[in-house]
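Final report, closing paragraph on structural work. Over the funding period we assembled a curated collection of sequence-structure pairs, and we close with a single example.
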Amino acid sequence: MSTLDLHSSKILKKALFSLPQGMPVSMSHLKGFGISRQLAYRYVQYGWLTQLGYGYYLRPGDSLTEEGAVASLQANGVRVHIGGKSALSLKGFTHYLSMGGETLTLYGQGVRSLPKWFQQQFKQSLSNSSLFDEPGDLAEKYCVTRLNQNADAPFVSEPERAVLEMLDLMPKRQTLEEARQIMEGLQSLRSKKLQELLKHCKKIKVKRLFWSVAEELQLPVLKKLTPSKIDFGSRSAYILQGEKNLVLRNPNG
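Its predicted structure, as stored:
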């Protein structure tokens, strides 16, 4: 039996069927199955895989999903995660928003651009903002976890982090009105996680903006937070320029 026959009958089946539907097969996956780039090229020639772009392949009959495509990027070493409003939508906090019709918000560290095939397939926005003082590895980031228990699920911000990421995009890519509407539904934010995130958040604007809107909406989590342990910057007022000027005070006085 030739090497090609061996792979087509055994290893290739794993490559074709072991990953969730909607998830492109990355070169990292193929290498894990013992498939070289040269052999992957032959699979494309035989019609067993369709090349999306350099290092990414689509299986016959499969259709891409946003979550699957992001998971494939992550598996291939691209340090991005689903964040902000998109993460809140996946977690069920923006019921009136549809992930399919909305811009997919991604946060990346050291990622300047995404593969062309990804940009062509999805309406997406990539932010390189360094919002937190944290490690670069996805698995070590604060409140970034897999979407579900599946080992191939994409990394997604938990709600406490996602809301701060959403506010980070104001006013250029996020309106205050929509942020208020979304935050109104965040009645179950976890205080321990949020306290830690606010402690490590590097942007005064984001911390003051969160506190200001949360106070306005009377979110329960505020009663369990300790503002004196959060650096809100100087005592002077912070004015957020945008659709309308918003004065953000220091909660510590």
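Confidence is low (pLDDT under 50) at residues 96-100. Strands lie at 25-26, 50-53, 56-58, 80-82, 104-108, 124-127, 144-146, 155-157, 238-240, 246-248. We thank the funder for supporting this effort.
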